[in-house]
User: What shape does this take?
Amino acid sequence: MAPETQGYRESFDATIYEVIASAVRIIAADPALLIPATRVLHHQKKAAAVRSRHLRDGLLVPPVIIASITSRCNLACAGCYMQHRGGTEYRAEMSPAVLASLADQAEELGVSALVVAGGEPLVRLSEILLLAEAHPALLFPVFTNGLLIDDAVADRIAGCRNIVPLISFEGFRDETDARRGSGVFDRLLAACLRLKSRQVFFGISVTTTRENLARVTDAAFIRQMLDAGARTFAYVEYVPMEPGTEGLVLKDGQKKELQEILAEHNRTFPALFLCFPGNEDYYGGCLAAGRGFVHISPSGDLEPCPAAPYSDANLTCQPLKEALRSRLLARLREEPAVLAETEGGCALHANKAWVEAMMGRE
Assistant: This one.
């Protein structure tokens, strides 16, 4: 493996460790959270060592796997990537057995975090809980619209301290209700308070655009979310999946501004502030295609990222270790220009014509 590959991997491993260590410091006074969080933190160095051994053997294991476990959702938000992935043919979701095997294999290979997404992943809450219970050292961030978090669901989530719900907001009430539906903002605040009352470590996710950047990073918004109990803020840069929305993508200057603001917030507020994809230049380009993460579709296709629905491997018919040797992923990593940071919010989405041509779709 090339020295430059090892270099960015070590940098990303260090970033993951520091993010979790920061979370541990935030909850240091809460014994109910500190013990399971410390277990997750200790797992990180072990996981990084396992990945390094695989790297020496020519297998690139990503620290993070994003698994969209369902395409079902109780909302239909404008611009949702799941609605714009292409194709209308129904494909069955991964079975509970496939999901359980995925988590087993991921931990064995040295994956640090299994990010659960959808659709709305909480429609498969029982399966998520089983995965988290079976793998207490593995971190399970769950991106959710939050509307299914009633008292019973909050109780169940509170029983698995390695699950970190990330509830989707668009900003204040007007922005959130405009995209997600009237009354959604107040329902999400109620869900946050249910989690807060049960001492769940949770956060919010914000789709960050050229238009809302100032509002969603403003101290007033941060304080309102802190009061609701959020202790993690994930800012996801908008990807123009819907034609005609390219004007919502952050400008280059805004991307740098976002990173600077979040760095200051990390010093100022008692919470963890992250942005995705973050500083791609620091890692020599996008971390998709296995450089830092891969995506698994609801039907089990192993893909470069959620915004790039291309695959030549499927986990319902081959083990994860074999799927990670995907020729498609390797080919993308061999073309640095394809994974270079772009003004399109997602390098692979911006270069989709090249990817589709390579896949023989043109």
